[in-house]
């Protein structure tokens, strides 16, 4: 099974996300980068599928050369090939990103085995547009299920499950297909030390694509109201007991 | 391995220790076991075989690299390192250094992946740091050996798949002569492992007695040649001593970090206690000793790799760093005051955990003997 997993380089922010002065972007000067949890599960699922059914896992990221760090992380998890897509813009929006991936997939599959499965995270960990997977699948004419929490090979296709309100939806999808998966699909592995060494030396393929215009423009990002926990002294010694009881009562503990 | 590759490995181990293990130290101490999911993650990362050769699935690290990883691992509960310490260290290295090709192929890939755990069965009730007094016997019989004896304080025995057992193949021998090393699968009839020992510290690191009651092993269970046992044990222990010294450096770093943080944030009489000069003295003394210990370990590891010294350096580093850790841990408790005596506070655990290092893999007294004998009778 030939599986393509698309990952995005996103800031590894803590509880509070710093913003740039103009409020239009995340201030990444003091942040590390990572891939989002949904996409980490997508890589893990692809590696497991290929381990069970044979084939190869290709990992792709759109963006600047620094995205190699995230592609190599996926290679360390067990992916076989890494691809960087140079879209000529530092931060393409979801429409432009999907256009770049669609072009890259056509380039990668020209004269080679087509991908049986395209995996995406359900949404990116920073922007969270929920668009790229669906746009790529549409562009390539593939069926896609989003919000996938379980995925298995069933006959010639895949059976995918997702939560829907109080129930569960189950889809049978013929291959080739696409899926946008959610965190919880599996427990992603810690990349092994030998895997990290292999990934450091792996050659990444760079695919150049024609930049496509996007349709979204960020006007402004805003921090939510500061709700950091504060310490309240309820009293001293035995005098604090009634106040503590009130708090416990309020919490429903007593 | 080039420096950048190793830096990536060191950074990954550092991150794993601090993100995955440190938050679970209290749980490990309380439950006296390493949680199964943590063991699985450690195996996935490759920690069960980092010191084993690359062709068997390990990383084939040099001693200089090994000690740098050991310093990272020392930062958290020693029970975590102990889980895979025998695979990478004394037991695994005996197979790497002296095992036959068939023995290496049979065991090293499984040890490196964490599918199997190897245990080093040397110590006996009357043969501790000096194994020349051991009495376990491996009597040659019908193309193999029949093993009888009792081993004590055997690390990882309760979870071991295979033991590297040291026993006398020459029943008439005494002292260091006539001892051989044998690979004994844990499932063989006659092998019984006792319950794991309750200990003062290092909860989660399991040791137990191993009883060998007429255990029959084939001739190809022999590691090296008959009579090589003492040499194999000493060679494995020399590497292990340097490794333990490095673990102590890591643990002393943690104890000092805890003490500094406490001194910086805890107030007494309206001032942070770090303002008091006698508290500052405790921190400064610990830092100076820790600096000396780290420098010593790194230098001794370089000399070990170069082959210029595999006795004085490892024994000196083990002696100094284990004793240094004892003092640093003691001062860390002192800086914490009453809090340092409370269960659940890291330095309280470190104080208990630290004590064992001065005893196992050769007591401080044995290290002094090794050092003095080497000085007086250089080869």
TrEMBL record, chain A:
SUPFAM superfamilies in the cross-refs: Adenine nucleotide alpha hydrolases-like (SSF52402)
Domain of life: Bacteria
Name of the protein described by the UniProt record: Electron transfer flavoprotein beta subunit
Molecular functions (GO terms): electron transfer activity
Domain Electron transfer flavoprotein alpha/beta-subunit N-terminal: 23-212
Subunit structure of this chain's protein: Heterodimer of an alpha and a beta subunit.
Cofactor: FAD
Function statement: The electron transfer flavoprotein serves as a specific electron acceptor for other dehydrogenases. It transfers the electrons to the main respiratory chain via ETF-ubiquinone oxidoreductase (ETF dehydrogenase).
InterPro entries per UniProt: ETF_a/b_N, ETF_b, ETF_beta_N, Rossmann-like_a/b/a_fold
From TrEMBL, chain B:
PROSITE patterns: ACYL_COA_DH_1
Annotated Acyl-CoA dehydrogenase/oxidase N-terminal domain residues: 5-115
GO molecular function: acyl-CoA dehydrogenase activity; flavin adenine dinucleotide binding
Residue stretches making up the Acyl-CoA oxidase/dehydrogenase middle domain: 119-215
Domain Acyl-CoA dehydrogenase/oxidase C-terminal, residue spans: 227-376
Requisite cofactors: FAD
Pfam families, per database record: Acyl-CoA_dh_1, Acyl-CoA_dh_M, Acyl-CoA_dh_N
Keywords: FAD, Flavoprotein, Oxidoreductase
Domain of life: Bacteria
InterPro entries recorded: Acyl-CoA_DH_CS, Acyl-CoA_Oxase/DH_mid-dom, Acyl-CoA_Oxase/DH_mid-dom_sf, AcylCo_DH-like_C, AcylCo_DH/oxidase_C, AcylCoA_DH/ox_N, AcylCoA_DH/ox_N_sf, AcylCoA_DH/oxidase_NM_dom_sf
Family: Belongs to the acyl-CoA dehydrogenase family.
Protein name: Acyl-CoA dehydrogenase
